[in-house]
Amino acid sequence: MTLISTAGLARTFLTKNGPVEAVRSIDLTVREGEILGFLGPNGAGKTTTLRMLTTLLAPTGGAATVAGCDLATDAAGVRRACGYVAQSGGVDPQISVREELVTQGRLYRLTRAQAAERAGELARDLDLTGLLDRTCGALSGGQRRRLDIAMALTHRPKVLFLDEPTTGLDPGSRADLWDLVRRLRDEHGTTVFLTTHYLDEADALSDRLVVVDHGVVVAEGTPSALKLRHGGSLDASLQDTFLAITGRGAAPAEQPPVAV
Amino acid sequence: MLLHDTALVYGRYLRQSLRSRFALLFGVLMPLLYLLFFGPLLTDLPLGTAGSSWQVLVPGLLLQLGLFGASFAGFSIIIEKGHGVVERMRVTPVSRLALLLGRVLRDATVFVFQAVLLVLAAVLMGLRAPLAGILIGFAFVALLTASLAALSYALAMRMDTPQSFGPAVNALTMPSMLLSGLMLPMTLGPAWLDVLSHLMPFRYLVDAVRDAYVGHYATPHVLYGALVAVGLTALSVTVGTRVFRTA
C-alpha cells in the first residue's frame, strides 16, 4: 500500500537575487513499512522536500498525500500521521528530558497522565530511562538523537521522517541508531523516510533509494538495482554509483594541465 | 483546543522565565534607574499637568518598561529556532495561534510583575495615585507588551541571526520612546513635535495612563488610549499568527 505519493511537488523561494527553485518537481511513492533512503548532493532539495511533506513549508507547485491525507487540504491529518526529526533536533538544552517528553505528549493532546505514561514508555523503549531528569543539554550526541526520535514517536506516527539522523554521531551510536530504525519498522511497521550523506548507511538501511539532484528525482530503485544500472555491476560501490548518477564529486583523475 | 494549547505553551515559557530569576528582575533595572536619578529632577518643574511629577513620570516609565522589554522578546525565538524547537512544535497538531499566544501571555505576565515592582519602588519615592488608576496602568502595560511581543516574535521568525534582529528593533524603539512622550509630556514641546507625536500610537497609551493616575477615568484620552491599545493588540496578534502559520 502506498503511504506517501507526490506528483510534481515543487518549491520556489523568492530571494533578493531572484527566484530560487529549491525543488523543481519531485515524483515519488513510498510504500507502507518501507525504509526509504533519500539521497542527493548538498543543496539538491532534500530538506526542502522533507519540510514540505511534514507541513512545515507550503509547496509552490504539485501535490502530495501522506497516509491518505492531502498535503494542501488536510494538514492536520498529515501532522497526525507523521513524525519529524530535523537535522538540528528540536529540544531546548535547558529543559529536562522528562519535561520535553511530557510536553510533547501534551502537544499531541494527551492528558497529563497519558503524557507522563507515554514519556515513561518512550524512555524505556529508547533507553533514556536513566536520563529523564537530566537537562537535554547534558546529553551526549547519541543520547540526544534517541531523545529527538522519542519525541517524534510520541503519537506512534505511521511515517517517521529523519533528516540526516546520524550526522555527527560516533560509529557506535550510528550502529545503535541503525538498529533502532530497523526495529521501528520490524516491530511497529513504521515507514521510515530518511536522508543521509553516508552511502554506507543508505546501503545498509534502505529498502529502496531515491536520488535527487537539482530539485528533481534522477534515479530510483533498490541499492542493487542502482548499482547494476548506474555503477556498472552489482559489485560497484554505492559511492561510485552515486557519483555516476549525479556526475559530481571526485571526478576521474584528470590529465595534468599541459604547460604551453 | 485553543485554550488547552495556549495554557500548555504558556506554562512551558513561564517555567523558562522562572528558571532565570535574575533576568526576571534585571528587566526593571532601566526604568528603576530613571525613577531614582531622573525622577527627582522633575519634582519642582512646571509640567503643565494635574497632580505631582511622579504621576506624570511613572506612567511613562511603565510603558517604557513594556516598550523596551517586549520589543526584544523575539530574541528568545531566534535561539529556539536554532535549536529546532519551533519547527518541532509546528509539526505537531498544536494550534498556531496558541504557539504565539502562550508566549505573548507569558511576556505580559512577566512585564506586569515588573511593573508592580516599579510602582512599589515609585511609592517609596513619593508617588501617590488612586488604586484604580494604578490598576488601569497595569492593564495598559499588559496590552502594550502583548502587542509588542507579538510583533517582535513575528519579526524574529523572519530573521535568522540576533545580529540583524537587535539593530532592527533598536531602530524602531528609540524613536518610539522619544516621540511618545514617555519621559515628559509632549505638550511641553513646540507644536510640530506635538503633532508628530500624535502619529505615534504609544502616545495615546501614555496619555491615557497619565489621566488614570490622577483619577480621571472618563476622559477622551482614556478612551483613545484603550481603543489604540486594543486595536494594536488585535493587529499584532493577527500578524504574528499569520507568520507562525506560514514561516
From TrEMBL, chain A:
GO molecular function list: ATP binding
Keyword ATP-binding: yes
Alphabetized SUPFAM superfamilies for the sequence: P-loop containing nucleoside triphosphate hydrolases
Alphabetized UniProt keyword annotations: ATP-binding, Nucleotide-binding
InterPro entries: AAA+_ATPase, ABC_transporter-like_ATP-bd, ABC_transporter-like_CS, P-loop_NTPase
Domain ABC transporter residue range list: 4-239
SMART domains per record: AAA (SM00382)
Statement: the UniProt record of this protein carries the keyword Transmembrane helix: no
The protein's name in its UniProt record: ATP-binding cassette domain-containing protein
Protein source organism: Streptomyces indiaensis
UniProtKB/TrEMBL annotation, chain B:
Topology class, membrane: Multi-pass membrane protein
Location(s) in or outside the cell: Cell membrane; Membrane
Keywords noted in UniProt: Antibiotic resistance, Cell membrane, Membrane, Transmembrane, Transmembrane helix, Transport
Domain of life: Bacteria
Phylogenetic placement of the source organism: Bacteria, Bacillati, Actinomycetota, Actinomycetes, Kitasatosporales
Sequence intervals crossing the membrane: 22-42, 54-79, 100-125, 131-156, 168-193, 222-244
Source organism of this protein record: Streptomyces indiaensis
PROSITE patterns reported in the protein's UniProt record: ABC_TM2
Coiled-coil annotated residue ranges, if any: none
UniProt signal peptide: none
Protein name as annotated: Transport permease protein
Keyword NAD appears in the UniProt entry: no
ABC transmembrane type-2 domain: residues covered: 22-247
Similarity comment: family membership: Belongs to the ABC-2 integral membrane protein family.
